[in-house]
Design goal:
By secondary structure, the protein is mainly alpha-helical. The chain is built from 7 helices and 4 strands, in the order H-E-E-E-H-H-H-H-H-E-H. It has helices at residues 12-24, 69-76, 82-89, 94-103, 112-130, 132-140, 167-187; strands at 40-43, 59-61, 64-66, 145-148. Helix 3 runs antiparallel to helix 4 (94-103).
Length: 193
């Protein structure tokens, strides 16, 4: 901890630095403090919405088309409940798909906590492979630290206290590194259709 009192007046720059330290110091990502200003990309809405699971990039998985990553991610929680999976698949928005899953949380598969990171990585990889625009925009982030700017979720994003685990950002950064090796140092970035 930096050892300051919440009653102490801080400048905006000090607050931003404190938040950055709190997010990453504890998580072992000290490199954030050594990156120039602007080397963090916050996504959830706005300019980098394409990185969000809620963005409207359909996926084809197992011969089925899913409206968003969020739709299929939520459906994967219910491998033994085809009716719930169907409701999630047909949900009119990613938000509704998440709410259906939340309403049925007692039926989530027992191994979900052990497999959810692998499933998410696979879905993000699929999104990248099926959408050249997403790949191009991802590679344009360079070496920036990608942070899901959600105050609701401390597992996938930064969380309300800015001390979240940011697993979604970490997955995007891992896959960006792999894609950079394949496309930038190899054959180039695929053209958009």
């Amino acid at each position: 901890m930096l050892g300051w009192s919440k009653t102490s007046p801080l400048t905006t720059q000090e607050v931003l630095m404190f938040e950055a330290v709190e997010i990453y110091q504890f998580r072992g990502l000290r490199s954030l403090l050594n990156t120039p200003k602007g080397k963090q990309v916050f996504f959830y809405e706005d300019e980098h919405y394409y990185l969000s699971n809620f963005s409207a990039f359909a996926l084809v998985v197992g011969g089925e088309t899913w409206m968003t990553v969020e739709h299929i991610y939520q459906a994967m929680k219910f491998s033994d409940h085809l009716r719930i999976r169907g409701l999630i698949k047909d949900a009119l928005s990613a938000h509704v798909s998440r709410e259906i899953a939340r309403a049925n949380k007692k039926l989530v598969r027992s191994d979900w906590n052990q497999v959810k990171l692998q499933i998410m990585e696979s879905l993000i990889k699929t999104k990248i492979s099926q959408h050249p625009y997403v790949l191009r925009r991802l590679l344009e982030t360079g070496d920036a630290i990608l942070i899901e700017n959600s105050n609701e979720n401390a597992f996938w994003g930064r969380g309300s206290d800015w001390c979240g685990q940011n697993h979604l950002g970490r997955i995007w950064m891992k896959l960006r590194g792999q894609e950079r090796t394949l496309h930038v140092e190899g054959k180039g970035i695929p053209k958009e259709h």
